[in-house]
Amino acid sequence: MDRSFQSLRDKSLQGPSAWPSTAKRNTFVMRNRTPTGGSSRMSVSGRSSQSVQVITRTRNHDVKSFGMPLPVLVTEALTYADRSTAVSAHISPDGWAWLVCGRRLLIWQYKQTPAMAQQRRPPSTQCRELTLPASELAHRADLVWVYTREDSPVPSCIAVSPEGTVRFWPSIAHEGTSVENSTDLQGQECDSLTSIASLGCILATTTSTVVHLQPEVSNGRHCVTSTTMKPPQSLLGGIGRRMSSLIFGSLPTAGAAEAKLVRVASVENSRGSSEQEFIVYVLTEHTLQKWSVTPFDLERLIFECDVGRRVREAFQEKVWDSQGGNPDDQESWVLDMQPTKDGVAILAASVHPQVSQNMQFAIATLNTDLAIPPTRLKSFSPLKNDVVSLKPEQDISQYQLLIAGHSALVYSQRNILVFPFPVPNGLEDPDVIEFRNEGDKILGGSVCANVPVFFSKSHGLVSISPLDYSPHDLSSQNDSVNYGPDVSISECGDMSVLEQDLEELVTHQNLDARMKAAFLFHVSKNQDQCEALVKELFPRAEVPLSDVDAPLDIAAVKVSQDLIDDIPARDPRWVDMKTSSISLSSSTSLHILRQLEQKQHALDLFFQFLIDLKLWERFSAVVSLGVVMATTHVLAEQAEKLVAAIAFHQLQSEHATLTETAIRLALELERERPTGKLNAKDLFFRKVSGIQRALQVLVKWSEDQIHSECSPSEVARQLAEVNDIVLEVIVQVIQYRQQKAEIFQPNPRMETTLCEYLPWTASVGAGGLREPLLKQQSLTLKFGARSTGDPKLKAKLYDQVFKMIDIILNGKLCHLESVRGSNKETVLFEQYQKARSSLIAPLVEDREYERAVMLAEKYFDFQTLVQICDLTNNRERLDVYIEKFKDQDFSQFLFNWYIQEQKPGRLLETFRAGSGLSAAAENSAQQAALARFLGDHPSLSWLQHVFLKDFQRAADTLTNLAEQETELLRRKKSMLSLAKLALLASGGAERHDQRALLDAELDLVAHQEDLPESVLIAYGYDIDALNVLPPAELIQLLICSENQSANEFTFKKALDLLEYEENQKADLKHKIWCQAILRDDWVEADSDIPLNVVQKTVFYKLVALIEFMDFTGQSLKELVPPKERLLDAPELAKLADHKSFEFLMSVAYEYFKEVLSK
């Protein structure tokens, strides 16, 4: 996170909020009752969400959400994946999961690992994305493995393409750091990767070839070695295979057709020697192999046995013989395998079309403990199945097996069958869980800590867990009691209090019913009995307030909801709705508004009862709307919904048609219909807890109107009316929330990280209003404010858009504040920033600057504030913000914004000291802040130094920039020239060293500029954007053979450049002289007049040039190498073989000696 945003992030959490709250997540429980006898069959429908703890319940099992919520990247990938894109998932038992979508690999942590638990480190909330190798076939999650090394908390990853390309990431945090190699599989398609912990992975192909992959570090570099695991060919090596042939019959030989792979499984061998050993089972359609894998690449085949034929015979004996099935007509398959305590369990299937259309499943077990192949199946147990039938072209291989505790789970993409394990002798009905949602399917399954976990495309990670009570308990529970015809009532204010049968209510089995009795005692001033009953129900225990869904909290929330959803006691039209002889009513009036007010008064009495009996101070947290919330906040929501219901009822006179439409649509949504003399309003306002339905259906109605035949102006008016209703209701709720904030404050003694606070007005799903508000805001903007030509209506619609954005952001901010210090804070803050920007930006686009500014100031959207000031050229307002938000480092944000928007000149102009363009330009503190900022941006800081007439610092900065410049030659030349000018302007006569350095660097630039374009083009340089060349490279280009125009002056330049080179000076000097000699033909030259021949060579001319330019004679002696070194030079080896070359060189050196002697 950028530094300029860090302070903003911390401070923005101090913005407006209804309630500060503590935070921790949990889930909401949905219970579905099923018959107590026969097969239990439950569908996982779309009405559940990932945040729901119990998604559905069968006769014996719960389907619950599992682990951390899915990352946003994963949900987006699942949502937006094309139908043609292959999507698969894998769940690792050690806490990591990954999703493969095309070539995208998404990895995240769904639960805390044991090592993290010991170190008290929370699970990571970050999702990593990697790119899989290119492949013409679809990637699968089974060809990926993520594991954590002991020396690193960040896991590594191995991925294999179906063609066999292996890509290894030592750390998933660094996508660009990976190694890749290919396995020689001779065209076989890869099927799966199976972990063997620190020993690597087992790669298996669809045709049962198995390869041991081992990540290693060799010579300081990561690599992956691969070893094909082959059965031994020696005389003794095949004893296991021959023994199996004697028992089960002949096995497929090496020359037989390749066997189709079914499953590879591995278990660590904890017996025997101390050396680490893994047992790897390879199941094909015919055979089972048992391998031993130990360190140092030792793979050994222990035995191989036939299972396919034995399974087929077992099906015929145990299933089809008794039904008269002909053995020749049955088909059988080996589908899957899972390790067990003493061997393996194999899932098999068989069909006999002449007997039954249902698929017959069975689980066969083999004892594989010994080093010799098993002589028979240990057990063979057919499974009862009334769900899966035989269909043409059905992919039978999709059915897989999991063994978890005492359960065996057979699953496909659409359903899960749960059987007891070991399977009893009698055929027992399975629990059946079906995933029927459109687009939903199971993408993967695994066993984590002995709990079966599945990846549902719609629900994310879900677990299947057995119920901890009898299925009969659910059907016998009576969670609510109602009036009977023989009840007498006496009122205490607006509260209806039972006098008859109160004793029966006291002795009721439900805790919430008995809490109601205590409440009635309190209302009737019978304090002794009230206190006695409360003490019995909720004995005080001096323990930290950390329980979620404690009995006290659950009972209080249940009684509160019963109060607001209660049936009017004195309205005879509700007699048919009363199902029990005992009840408590919170309203007695026959008028709806009065009923709501009485419920409100009754709820106040209930809250006072909780406070007086000191139960309020003992509240902890409950699960609501998918998160763990403080119980007081949940009780507040019950009161808020009463406020919403009263506000909605009061709007009926002004918006009669729309409110009636909302009531009708809400009841249709719940499939409720008036009966008897009850009307739609009676039903709707009775169930106050569902008041949000009215606002949700109004938004849906608005959307329908947009797609109707109504004119744009009519649609705009309808949107405005809907907004009037929605906003009035929510504003009333928020005002009540703010007024009562202190009352509903969570207990300060509660653990600070326990709860979150997500108001129902900001929640998603059926119980919340976030999605309807976002939708309505978008519709109002696009089809209302932007479509109407009526100025008054346009202004009203923009005001409504402004209010809706305010409500949405306030809800998000409340949630964000409640998770401060938790793992979710960073993710939620990023979501909040994204939502804030996307909601306010349209107002800026529409030039609704004042409304955008009010929102941006309230929610610390500095991006919008700066953007509007820049668009309107309002520097005065910018000065106000710099001062107003100085604690949030607004100035640092502003500096960064100018840089990101590529407006550095505007930054320096605005803040230039003495410019008078802004108050910040005259503020010493802001000047110091700018100086600190520019310290990290030296390419701009020299300009500020020039503005401040600090030419010496400008020269120093430009000199440093020029030394670091390697990208563009012309930029370096400009920096050097400007540095020299700044140095001269500074009057620093004593800075001779710096001036000499600048002159030398400019000389070096000049040498590079003199390079012929033909040479640069020949070597592939971009002459229009030439980069800075080092001296050694410059020398090479000057003397290269491609520089056909090179002469003695060119080689003299090359020798001069040796001053800039330290490391290769001797070698380069030697190379320069060799290249100078090679410029001429020494072999075919006429040696009759040798001195004339020598004087025409570049070599001689170069020596003469050096002698001419040297008045001391020292340079010639230092620069010209000895004759013997040149004659022995490898570069001149071809010339050295010719006597004429040696003769001419001797003539040259003799002449040089004579010249030097003079």
UniProtKB/TrEMBL annotation:
It holds the Pfam family Nucleoporin_N. Residues 63-462 form the Nucleoporin Nup133/Nup155-like N-terminal domain. It comes from the Eukaryota. The keyword Cell inner membrane does not apply. SUPFAM superfamilies: Nucleoporin domain. GO terms for cellular component: nuclear pore outer ring. GO terms for biological process: poly(A)+ mRNA export from nucleus; protein import into nucleus; transcription-dependent tethering of RNA polymerase II gene DNA at nuclear periphery. It is found in: Nucleus envelope. One of its GO terms (molecular function) is structural constituent of nuclear pore. Belongs to the nucleoporin Nup133 family. This is Nuclear pore complex protein Nup133.
